[in-house]
Amino acid sequence: MPNSTRNRASTGNSAKNSEKKTTVTPSPERRRELLSTAAEVFAAQGYNATTVRRIADEAGMLAGSLYYHFDSKESMVDEILSTFLNELWAGYDEVLGAGLGPRDTVEALVTESFREIDRHRAAVAIYQKESKHLSTQPRFRYLTESQGRFERAWLGALERGVAEGVFRADLDIRLAYRFLRDTVWVAASWYRPGGRHSPEEIARQYLSMVLDGITPREEQTRRDRTQRET
Amino acid sequence: MPNSTRNRASTGNSAKNSEKKTTVTPSPERRRELLSTAAEVFAAQGYNATTVRRIADEAGMLAGSLYYHFDSKESMVDEILSTFLNELWAGYDEVLGAGLGPRDTVEALVTESFREIDRHRAAVAIYQKESKHLSTQPRFRYLTESQGRFERAWLGALERGVAEGVFRADLDIRLAYRFLRDTVWVAASWYRPGGRHSPEEIARQYLSMVLDGITPREEQTRRDRTQRET
DNA sequence: TAACCTACCAAACACTTGTTAGGGAACCCG
DNA sequence: CGGGTTCCCTAACAAGTGTTTGGTAGGTTA
């Protein structure tokens, strides 16, 4: 594995820089197609349990043919996860740069997260299951970095919220952060695009539970009681 | 894999029943020790990514020696998960049979869950990551069944709660169920026994967020405002 | 037509995987 | 002492793994 002889330079190109680019140039559209099916299989079976033969099978070709488009199985997850995280942070940065208040920030982040789950369900599922032990490899260091940005963004919003009195003062901030983070992302394990609820609808419900709890508030109690008496 | 010849019957026992019991009898304590380290590795690396050589290494022995105690890698996860689920349901059944009201039931289930996480952190982590694709195999059908009991228990408590007015009437019950279930069990991914918070303490915080939300309620707002003005 | 490029196949290679077979050291029991 | 049991090691096997190599059908270009 470490000393895999770099080949495919048989046409005798410039021998100076050992660029990763192969001499052939697969079409980016086909790459995306294959990555999409690969992501689906990874998400369903788990990364390690998925054989490249299975991916090829799902794509209607043989195992070796995948290596015309990608240079390793690892590169596939890498590309799946990194493109997902790039799009995710594009959305997040927009929210974080909008100068919203803490509560609006939290709401916007949650909503944006569910939109990303809607768009990248498979990638999110992979991220959840595999990021922990993938991030130990230097190649996937960006996973750890992303997690750090994630934490700072959420913790910041929560802290400001507590300071401004829009969030409860008796919250354990770090616990609340993990609570929010987890509740949002685990949805990828059961969410199916095109189902009964739109991402925005699910976000609304989640926010309602997280912000106000599942027990009735004063006003709601009064209103419900009135309704029940009629 | 399908036609692995059943051996180890060379001593010529009664040839009638093909019992799984081997002729040798490893000590149950040693089994538990090995299962504990195996669970730790499974939880950290994932089941498929974990080699039996790695487990043996962690246990200070060689790969083949594990097969004196267990007859397959699959048997190890099986035993880890089933003993965990047995203990879990012992606790759950006690709660469910206590005749509590819906809210007390939910509180007791959550608290019990965190106690189980405290005791079986590794097993819970494995259950989360692997149960989905393990449950497709007939050997692990009990995982699916357990999930069904799980769902009925939670949904029942939630429905009764809504009917009695102790939970909000506008809840999407199934969404709330998944919300509760996930928020509780994902804690196993970051929880470390012996940390700052006891299981009961974490359960209290979680319940506080789930039941009352993270925004201040009327009374709290008033009290906090008073405190801040002093 | 000839040269070339894209996208795949067929077949293998090197390695890792779970698992097995036989043996042997330490210990208990008679 | 001698037989038996417990627990592990050494050494291998067969299947499966990711990956590479060379080839080739079909389309495009000149």
Automatic annotation (TrEMBL), chains A, B:
Record region (Disordered): 1-30
PROSITE patterns linked to this entry: HTH_TETR_2 (PS50977)
InterPro entries linked to this entry: Homeodomain-like_sf, HTH-type_TetR-like_transc_reg, HTH_TetR, KstR2_TetR_C, Tet_transcr_reg_TetR-rel_C_sf
Keyword entries, A-Z: DNA-binding, Repressor, Transcription, Transcription regulation
Compositional bias ranges of the Basic and acidic residues kind: 17-30
UniProt GO molecular function: DNA-binding transcription factor activity; transcription cis-regulatory region binding
Polar residues bias locations: 1-16
Domain (HTH tetR-type): residue spans on this chain: 28-88
Domain of life: Bacteria
A Pfam match: TetR_N
DNA-binding region (UniProt annotation): 51-70
Protein's UniProt name: AcrR family transcriptional regulator
Source species taxonomy: Bacteria, Bacillati, Actinomycetota, Actinomycetes, Kitasatosporales
